[in-house]
Amino acid sequence: MKNLASSSQDSNSLRLLKTYFTSYDLERMELYGKGVVDYHLIVDILPQMVKMIFTGEINIKGLSVQQKAILVALGLQYKSVDELAEISLTSQLPPMPASQILGHFKRAIIRINEEVKCLETKKAEAELDLPKSKTDLQIEEGDEGAIDAVLDEEAAKIKEEQAKEKQELVKALQQYKIKGNDTDWSQELSTRKSVANISIGRERVDEKKSENEDVPVKRKGGKTPEGKKKKKKHG
């Protein structure tokens, strides 16, 4: 019985919201809660919304004393934020700066937006006859076998594809590999005055040097140093 009464009250609250406000009005409230628009854009909505809250036509939970006082002052007493900053909202608290008042007001609007969305969600669930909890959902296994096995197989395929893509990427990036080792770079950095003049070409020089070590250098006449005849010494 309690659930039925609550459901009936929620339906009535949503019906009244749709009666008093357009979709654009509720969208403006949501945009203000997200910080997209200024509070001046929703002041025309406040009187009727605050009336619904304090007459019980819509139940907004979690509003603090300060938030309720600010809603009444802005929505029903038509005071400005600057005027509220000069007076005490409650007998136990001193006046608050305008920025703090707007902070409390924004949190109150966010709570209202959350309740409106909750009412709309409940209505949609009732119309679609959705299950009340996840335990009501039953997942049937297909011809492919257990769901876990299928998921594991798909995960293995994805990992294999990712490994292939990684290998291809590494291969493609080899052309951009920086030459030289730590020793080469340390030597260049210690000897060069400007970073712009650094050139790591020692690797290529060393390679050419090693290639030329075994190749004999030919001189004039086609003779190599090894083939040069030694002159006989005449005593």
From TrEMBL:
Ranges of residues in domain Possible tRNA binding? 9-188
Protein's name in the database: Possible tRNA binding domain-containing protein
Which PANTHER family does the record match to this protein? Answer: N-ACETYLTRANSFERASE 10 (PTHR10925), RNA CYTIDINE ACETYLTRANSFERASE (PTHR10925:SF5)
GO terms of molecular function: 18S rRNA cytidine N-acetyltransferase activity; tRNA binding
GO aspect biological process, one term: rRNA acetylation involved in maturation of SSU-rRNA
Q: Which organism is it from?
A: Oikopleura dioica (Tunicate)
> Which cellular component appears as one GO term in the record?
nucleolus
Q: Where is this region: Disordered?
A: 198-235
Chain intervals with Basic and acidic residues compositional bias: 201-227
At the top level of its lineage, which domain of life is listed? Eukaryota
